[in-house]
C-alpha cells in the first residue's frame, strides 16, 4: 500500500489533459459542499515544489490527499465542524496517523500545521486534472479501512 501511495505514476507533463471540475469547485461553492475540490499553494496547477489538496466532500465527511506534483502524496480523511476541517493524515511509509485542522476562508484553506511542506495556506483552483482524480481515487480505495 505505501509504495503505491507515494509516487504518482502519471506524469502530468506528458499531456494529461486538464478537464473542467464539477460545479462544486467553482468559487461560489465552499469545500463543505458535496463534490470534489482542489486547492493549491499556487494559483496555477502542477507547479513543482508547491503543495496541493484534492478531496471529496460527502455530507460533513471528506477524504483526499495532500500532494506535490511529480512526487509523493499522503491520504487523509476528516470531518467538517463549523469553519474547520479536522483531518487525520496517514503517512504513506509507516501508516502513522497525525491530526491537524484546516480553517476555511473565502476560497482558501489554512492548515494549523504543515501537512507536508511549504506554506500552509491554500487557494481554490477551478480545474481538476485526470491526475488529481487518480490521486483521489487511490486514497478512497486505500482508506476504506481507516475511516
Name the average pLDDT. Answer: 78
> Would you count the extended β strands for me?
10
Give the spatial strand order of the biggest sheet.
2-3-4-5-6-7-8-9
Q: In angstroms, what separates the terminal alpha carbons?
A: 16 Å
Helix content: 10-25%
- Estimated structural class: mainly beta
Shape category: globular
> How many separate helices?
2
Q: Hey, roughly how much beta strand do the residues contain?
A: 35-45%
Low-confidence stretches: 1-27
Radius of gyration from the CA trace? 14 Å
How would you sum up the major sheet?
8 strands, antiparallel, barrel
Give the SSE map.
Layout: H1 2-6, E1 18-20, E2 35-40, E3 52-58, E4 61-67, E5 73-81, E6 84-90, E7 97-105, E8 108-111, E9 121-124, E10 127-129, H2 130-142
Question: Can you walk through the features of this model?
Answer:
It is a single chain. The protein has helices at 2-6, 130-142; strands at 18-20, 35-40, 52-58, 61-67, 73-81, 84-90, 97-105, 108-111, 121-124, 127-129. The protein has an eight-stranded antiparallel β-barrel with strand order 2-3-4-5-6-7-8-9. The protein starts with a helix and ends in a 5-residue tail after the last helix. The protein has 147 residues and is mainly β. β7 and β8 form a beta hairpin.
Describe what is shown at a glance.
The protein has helices at about 1-5, 130-140, and strands at about 20, 35-40, 50-60, 60-65, 75-80, 85-90, 95-105, 110, 120-125, 125-130. The protein is mainly β. The strands form two sheets. An eight-stranded antiparallel barrel has the order 2-3-4-5-6-7-8-9. Strands 1-10 form a two-stranded antiparallel sheet.
